[in-house]
Amino acid sequence: MAAAIHCLSSSCLALPSKFGNLSLNGLSTSSTHFPSLTFSANLSHFSQGYLSVGPSQRSVRRSVVCEAAPTKKPDSAEKRARQAEKRRIYNKSRKSEIKTRMKKVLEALDVLKKNPDAQAEEVLSIEKLIGEAYSIIDKAVKVGTLHRNTGARRKSRLARRKKAIEIQKGWYTPADSEVTA
Q1: CA distances from residue 95 to 29, 102, 112, 144, 145 in whole angstroms, order as listed
Q2: CA triplet 126, 117, 178: central angle to 5 degrees?
């Protein structure tokens, strides 16, 4: 037979007095002694909860199983959840901005690559876009949104793509050491 006692934090301290009228398999707790049953007065971490009392399934010896469970998260866990959600939204917007800037640079490079009459001066506007993308990537690495290797890889991707187009158009001639490396 299991019994449940619902209590608030102030009334949980008076639990031993509530067992005076509790019966367990027809036996009253006032007539039966439970030497291993003790109560702690330090229940301050449970603001609201329940206590379930029931006998164990052993037939040789009777014992009482007590469980007290909190019904809500501690305040520190709620604060951590709020902070994590705030950081997630912040990081998501930063990563989205990085993707947008990279996409703009790559699209501009594709337009330049497909244009047969492109001039070397057209690279200057793309270099400005690349500089803005680098700045956003560096800021994301600085605040911890991106790992530094990820930031370096993305910056390298933009630089390699620009250099490949400059080589293809004949605006840049790599030195012998760069070709062999």
Answers
A1: 63, 11, 26, 11, 8
A2: 55
66 exposed, middle or buried (CB, 10 Å; 0-12, 13-18, 19+)?
middle
Q: How far apart are CA 96 and CA 94, in angstroms?
A: 5
Read off the pLDDT of residues 96-132 as tens digits, 9 standing for 90 and up: 999 999 999 999 999 999 998 989 899 999 999 999 9
More confident residue, 113 or 60: 113
Query: How high is the pLDDT of residue 28?
Result: 47
| Closest by CA position to 109, among listed 152, 147, 165 | 165
- Return the HEC string of the chain: CCEEEEEECCCHHHHHHHHHHCEECCEECCCCCCCCCCCCCCCCCCCEEEEEEEECCCCCCCCEEEEEEECCCCHHHHHHHHHHHHHHHHHHHHHHHHHHHHHHHHHHHHHHHHCCCCCHHHHHHHHHHHHHHHHHHHHHHHHCCCCHHHHHHHHHHHHHHHHHHHHHHCCCCCCHHHHHC
* CB-neighbour burial class of residue 140 (10 A; exposed 0-12, middle 13-18, buried 19+): buried
